[in-house]
Amino acid sequence: MPNPSRPATLKSMATALGVHVSTVSRVLNGDPAGVERAASPEVVERIRALAKELDYRPNTQASNLKLRKSQEICVLMPRITDLVMATIYDGIDSTAEQAGYLTFVSNTDDQQPRQMQRAEHALRRSVAGLIVGDSHVGDTQPLLDLLTRKHIPYVLVSRQIAGHVAACSNDELGGWLAAQHLYQLGCRDVAILAGERHASTGADRTRGFTRYYREQGITLRQEWTVNGPFDSLTGHQQGEYLLGLTPRPQAFFAVNDFLAIGLMGAARDKGLMPGKDIAVVGFNDIPLAHELIVPLTSVRLPLTEMGQHAVELLLKRIKGEPVASIILTPQLQVRASSSVLPS
């Protein structure tokens, strides 16, 4: 019998039962076809009884090293504290769990060197694949080039880059819808809180917004488009600057709800009321948007669904199946922050 002071192994149980180690492996790994070929019902029963008696637990780490893969998925996020990304991750994690996979998040702070470090750590764990939520627009893609070279399955989520599979939204359409709404409201002097320059989300939403106005024969002031992090502090600071201009913009499009909320805070400090003195439109439609004192008009994205699709695409890539990006359609939710033409 195996030494009770040591954890049971496939080899020790095979020796005790007088069968080949591969027979024990097939029985305990639950491969029905393999079990029928490997042993009689009596031998199968003996193996399972001994495993139960010894409280046998598979050595998943050893299995991962042997198979060069695990049942884990690494999710690279720019900031875990971001409610938008957290909502997307909720969809990722629940869908992965249903498929028998575990997920873990690595926070990259939206910095490419840190992104590479976190990804390399995940690869040392022989993860089954990666979901990348912090891709950067640009000519060089060191992480994606590495994953492609090593044949590691991956998909992008939320952000998108041409030539790479992604689960994301039609952000350019979302910006176009926001512009159409403000234009039809009568707003011509509009500022844009455009987010990070390297993020496809902000760039695409800004592109769609400015394109709509250009199609109406209006070129928006370039100096009224400001870039920065996707957070409320930045929105407040950018709002103070833009609202302090003479003349000031009539309306504001923020490519993220937190930027819009920060801007509305700056407007409050200056005695201005969104929906009366200025018009404000955000993006993502987080739950807080319609709970504000002045509910925020926002472009709604199906964030949980986006995370679900990211996992579905990744699992297909893991299986070697052909895949194509999934682009979800945004919808504009009009509320009091932009319900009337500003006075």
TrEMBL record:
GO terms for molecular function: DNA-binding transcription factor activity; transcription cis-regulatory region binding. Pfam families: LacI (PF00356), Peripla_BP_3 (PF13377). Gene3D superfamilies: 3.40.50.2300, lambda repressor-like DNA-binding domains (1.10.260.40). It comes from the Bacteria. Residues 8-67 form the HTH lacI-type domain. Keywords: DNA-binding, Transcription, Transcription regulation. This is LacI family transcriptional regulator. It comes from Pseudomonas endophytica.
